[in-house]
What we know:
Elements: E1 16-17, E2 30-31, H1 34-40, E3 44-47, E4 52-57, E5 60-66, E6 71-74, H2 81-91, E7 96-100, H3 112-121, E8 127-131, H4 132-140, E9 150-152, E10 156-161, E11 164-170, E12 181-185, E13 190-192, H5 206-209, H6 216-224, E14 230-232, H7 241-264, H8 278-301, H9 307-324
Parallel strand pairs: 1-2, 6-7, 7-8, 8-9, 13-14
Antiparallel strand pairs: 3-4, 4-5, 5-6, 10-11, 11-12, 12-13
GO molecular function, one term: hydrolase activity
Organism: Saccharopolyspora phatthalungensis
Keywords: Hydrolase
Amino acid sequence: MSVIPPSNPLRESQPHVAPSATDVLPPGTKIDELFERNMTEPYVLQRLSPRVWWVSVTNYTTVFLVGEESVLLFDAPLKRYDGVVSAVSAVTDKPISTIVYSHFHTDHLDDIDRYVQAAQDEGRTLRLVASEQTDAKLAAARSILPRPTQTVSWPNGSFDFEGSRVELHGFEWAAHTEDHAAWLLPSERVVHVPDLISPDQPPFWRFAANERFLFTRDNLDAVDKLEWDHLSGGHGNVGDHGDLAAEQEFIAELLAVCENEVSRNPLEAYVDPELGSHTAWFAKFLETTSAQAADKLREKYGHMYGFESSIRANAEAVTLHLVQYH
């Protein structure tokens, strides 16, 4: 496992630098003033390897690989088309030929029609790649998004992009959504795994709208075991292995606090006929437990970006986990 720097609070002591589209970012280094840059600049662009760049557009992040003839892009985050395309154009005039659907959630795919239309306008057909699991979920949900033109075997498979291997590492038991996976560029030592972690930040609301908190720590471990230097998390800063370890520490602390509160004041303690329904009892149980968790963790993490906005929702997700599983 990765070593957590002594100061943890999600590793704010790491070196932070201004973004560069030309200089490769040293592993373990973060982009400085990221929120302010996201709010004032059309995009934030950072080179991660000789052929891979990371781009952030108002808090949605992804990566793209520049090949010999064209560009491979992961995802098509909603309402970020102009910023992403401008960032790609800042480093190459090669067309975007391939887009990978990282997972089903449409906030990471909602601009795909614009990319498809742009390719058609240029007389090209866009290559859309997804896992078999994502393809199946798109169909099951009757999604209006364009279907993949190519699928990759689930849970482990790969495809070739202009001589570069792109690997799929699907989670056997996924936390975020059933088709959640890590997409690895082994030759570039870059992994793209949106919504697993937001480096440099406490976890987003309910662990990034995590559908099954039960498997979160296993998924973090699975990604940590892969070989890479830089992580793209879909949100937050550029990540590294130490961020996964710091997230594990945060989760362990939150679990311990919630377990203690549930032990002291279990759901049965909230039975109150005057509230009029058992739904009200449960709401009070979650509200009180999450408030206690926030109070316990505020001294260590309270100064961090987004803590107050996320801690109670994250504590509710953990509390639900505690009453649903043993």
